Amino acid sequence: MKPVLLSFHNNGPLGLGGLEDRFNIIRLWKEQDPESVIQQHKNDVVAINCALSHQIGKKLIEALPNLEIIATYSVGFDHIDLETTQKRGIKLTNTPDVLCQETADTGMALLLATARRIVEGDMFVRTGKWYNGKLPLGITLAHKTIGIVGLGGVGSKIAKRCEAFEMEVVYYGPNKKDVPYQYYSNITPMAQDCDMMILTCPGGEATANLVDINVLEALGPKGILVNIARGSVVDQPALVGALQNGVIGAAGLDVFADEPHVPEELISMDNVVLLPHIGSATLETRTKMGQLVIDNILAHFDGKELLTEVVRQK
Ligand code: DGY
Fold this sequence. Notes:
It contains eleven helices and twelve strands. It is an alpha/beta fold. The longest helix is centred in the last third of the chain and has 19 residues. The model has no long low-confidence stretch (mean pLDDT 97).
């Protein structure tokens, strides 16, 4: 009998075909009663394939005594209970690198769309407002200072793109890096010195509500905030208030505190551009991510080194 792979999604455009020979695949999203299917197969499940919208918590992990590996179709892994996986010695893989360019492009798209009022302009034309007036002026990117929060894989690609736009790049993160950009060990003074700020850091406890009202006040009334990290990195009610009261100028958001729920107030604001968490969402990149999920799972069961293991600090 083949071992069981518990899959929470279809692994993007590539699908799960590459795992069909080796595993009995439970396609959980197709099941009427997922809970009872898990109960029925709990002793046979050796692998989980999930994405960032699937909460892989303690209860589920503990219910699967033979689980060996969790492969997530995302770079972020804040939806997985790390303490429990670590305790059980369960391997965890993600999809870094292959999505960095794409996610950085999404960040730039949000930055441009927000600064240059692209979405507002589109609506202006479509709704016939052009006949009666002019779209308010946008904001120049060139020679402005952009603060990158988290200069990892995605953040570094953003920095390169911002350099091409002739922007001044500075960054904040837990460690100073060997890069030609000014480093801040504290986010608030960086926000004070920035015209725009883009969040690319991981989610989770360490960055929860990192961008609070103090940071937003420091960014200031002309400031633009772009979030392609996680909704949890920003104090969302504080952000809504800051946009309503002119504490900051505008925001471009790909991520939210409780996806897919987006506060009504944000939906009605002209100075906000909203996306449905599509940082890595292109055919090419999602195909590469799906391949990496398959390669990691196969590598594990072939006794080979994992391609992209999430290595956790003890
Ligand atoms: C991920 O994969 O974790 C990111 O959210 C991409 O947008």
